[in-house]
Every structure is written in C-alpha cells, then in structure tokens.
Write a structure and sequence with these properties.
With 257 residues, the chain is of the alpha/beta class. The protein is built from 10 helices and 15 strands. Helix 2 packs across helix 3.
Length: 257
Amino acid sequence: MDRHQRLQKILHELSEKEKLDVDEIGDMLSISPATVRRDFNYLAKHYKVKKTWGGIAIGDSNKTMDSMLPLQERQTINIGAKKSIAEKAASLVSDGDIIFIDGGTTTLEMVPFLVDKKVTIITNSILIAQKVETMNNRFTSEVFLTGGMLYPNSGLIVGPQALDGIKNFNAQWTFLSIGGISTDGPTNSNVLVVETEKAMIAQSEKTVILADSSKICKKDLVKVCDFQDIEIIISEKSDKDKELQEMVNTNTEILFV
C-alpha cells in the first residue's frame, strides 16, 4: 500500500469514527508508529483535521468528513456503494421524465445508468453535464444547466441566477446528494448549495435522497428539508440500517441496495 492509498484509508476510517489514534492505524495498516505520525501530520496540515493527544480527529464535529475533502478525494470514498445507490436511483426514472439532479459524488454516478433512457435532466453540476457530454454518442436525453456562479472546487453552480433557472422548470423527480442525515433530517455543508436543493424540491413531485452509510447519523452545517418532504432514501446495507430506519419516522420509503 503506497502513501496515497494509506491516506485514503485513514480518511475513510476518520469519516466513520471521527477520531483515530496512532496504535489503531498502525495495527490496521501494519505500519510503524513513526509512519502513522507522519501521515497524521500531513493530514492535519492539508485537510480540516486536528491533532489530538496521540491521534487525529475531525476538526469540526458538526461537519462530515466528506464535506471537508477536495472533490477529487470525495469521489473515491465508498465508490462501490455510491455506484449501487446511483443505479437504484436511476431505475426509478422512466422515459419522458423530467428530473433535477444536484451536484454530488453519488448523483454523478447516476449518469451512466441513465444513458438508455430518454429523459430531460436539469442540473446545477457542470461535472454531470460534462459526463453526459463524454457519452454523447449514446445519450438521447436533453440536459439543461442552471445559470449562476461556479462555486470553487465543487463543479457546482449556485446563487440567485441558479435559483431563477431552477424555478423555470417543473419535474417529476429531484435526486439529491447530501452531507449527512440525522434525526433532524438531511443536511449539507454549504448554504448556497442547500438553497438550490430546496428550490429543486419545491419544483418537483418527488424527492429522492442518495446517502451512503458514511452519511448516516452525521449532521452537517445546514438543514436541507424535513423527512416528510422526502419520498425515498436510498442507501447501501450496513450496520447502520436500523439507526436509519429509527430516525425516519414518516412515510418516507427506505431502499437498501
């Protein structure tokens, strides 16, 4: 395992546990305490991770680890689960549907599973639009990008123009990635991003949350909506299944893949 792989593994473990110590990671990765400390120092310098006595912890307990990582790093976390969740989400869509897809590492994985459907996609993600373009010889769908400001290091278009663009459409479905999901509902890390998500929910008939297990029992900065505003939550089977079912005390359907 090279250093990049080690760092990815450490970040993934930190997203699950929120706190790690040197001995724990040394035993897990079969590396020396000195190597672990160097990796911890690197993460504390380059990521929103804080040093603790003998270890590291997430720098802000109200944020999920996903929301603190650069986009390229977030795309590698739980990628297998994200693909399965995205495939299930895409299976809900029928030919002729109009769908909102917000920008996120899980919603991005929906694109290949929509390739054989004739749908209209409205998105605030230039990465989703770009992924459709790379498959353009196979796609028969229309894609509309909202206007607005490109938010740094995210591929997301946000702001008043994005909200105005969303309000011009009516859709059957909204598909959202989130930063966390707790007893209070789904949350995300940025006010501007949440504004666009709220607008999409308001303009569609049904809302679907795509949340891999690392998001469950986590609370991010800004609340997106109440559970009663969500028709379906899709997640992978994990040891958090019961916790997710207990916190969703409405008629919201939970689909495990």
